[in-house]
Amino acid sequence: MSQAILLYLSRAKWAEIFVMRWRITRRVARRFIAGETVDEAIETIRKLNREGISVTLDIQGESVTNKIEASHTVAVYMNLLKRIDEEKLYPWISLKLTALGLDINPELCHKNMQKILQFASKRDIYVTIDMEDHTYTQRTINLFNKLRAEGFDNVRTVIQSYLYRSDEDIASFAKNAAGIRLCKGAYREPASIAYPKKQDVDTAFLRQIKILLNAAKEGRGYPGIATHDENIIKATKAFVADHDIPRDRFEFQLLYGIRTKLQKQLIEEEYKLRIYVPFGSHLFPYFMRRLAESPANLWFFVSNFFKR
Ligand code: FDA
Question: Which of 144, 177, 181, 271 is within CB 3.0–4.6 Å of 224 for a Cys-Cys bond?
Fold first, then answer.
């Protein structure tokens, strides 16, 4: 099954209803998702922290269609923030603006972000706004800039290397010391706005990470290098060594349940590492994007399906 079909299915409500009926889906998805409840997420943070790994927690759910759903997302995030505060844990938080009402009303989304950031800032918790497909890029950057201008220095966002525009965005963010996670990009985008070839995406990623790392060396920003690509990780290690960039000026970020040997190796080599830990019951779009990224994941799912 092609990557394009899986990415199409990740957004199709009918496919979600159909696939989520199989119990096997939840079982296999557990490989990539920490659990459905806050308690399970807390347990995962503790386990990863014991291994020297930091965490960014993401509650699964995207694209709400009314104010009540958006308020519900905020309430769930506030509850999570209170719990991690009580438990004296210090993960970062990741979220999606469409889950906070961006499609309903940008001002509502802005207010929801302010509420979450105010609570998080008192506890030194950083909040990263995940980047969704290209129709949200400019709106996400606008809101991110607005929140920074309002004084929230605990807000971060994501840039996707596959977009042609990202060189300019990176240059501007590096200059302004913004907190950026750099990733390749997980959505199906047209060739008019994104590199269609992996080789070009990888070249752009390396070009952009060097700009962020040079800025970080001078005290501007703290980049998160979000990839499982061993060639990019190797090139990053060589670049920081050659340019005397201290290891506490950046971190590698990987997804929960993916390339666990590589995670262990990065910790042993004393690099900073943060794992993106998704949890919650609305796991279908995230699960489908992970299947699309790796034929091995798809094979794991299909073979478990037939073994059930
Ligand atoms: P690439 O796809 O080239 O893969 C490199 C190697 O890793 C390959 O061997 C591949 O098989 C393996 N690999 C990659 N993904 C795998 C998977 N799911 N399972 C098993 N093996 C896998 N995207 C986005 O659009 N917005 C966002 O906000 C984020 N946020 C984010 C946070 C973090 C911490 C990470 C690691 C990634 C994201 N992404 C994202 C996803 C990102 O854009 C991209 O789709 C994936 O990371 C896959 O790209 P790689 O850089 O890993 O390289």
Answer: 181
Enumerate the β-bridge partners of residue 163.
194
DSSP 168-190: HHHHHHHHTT-EEEEE---S---
Closest ligand 1 atom to 183 CA: 43
In the block, which residue shows the tokens 């796991």?
Answer: 283
Tell me the three-class secondary structure of 68-84, residue by residue: HHHHHHHHHHHHHHHHH
Tens of each residue's pLDDT in the chain, 308 residues: 577 777 777 777 776 666 666 677 777 777 788 888 899 999 999 999 999 999 999 988 767 788 998 998 999 999 999 999 999 999 999 999 999 999 999 999 999 999 999 999 999 999 999 999 999 999 999 999 999 999 999 999 999 999 999 999 999 999 999 999 999 999 989 999 999 999 999 999 999 999 999 999 999 999 999 999 999 999 999 999 999 999 999 999 999 988 999 999 999 999 999 999 998 877 777 677 777 777 677 666 666 655 54
Atom of ligand 1 nearest to the CA of 198: 3
Contact yes or no for 7/290 (Cβ under 8 A): no
Q: What share of the chain is helix, strand, coil (3-state, %, to 5)?
A: 55, 15, 30
pTM above 0.70, yes or no: yes
| Catalytic entry in 181, 249, 289, 290 | 181
**Residue 307 to residues 52, 115, 226, 284, Cα–Cα distance (Å):** 36, 46, 33, 21
CB of 183 closer than 6 angstroms to any ligand 1 atom? yes
Active-site residue flag, 181: yes
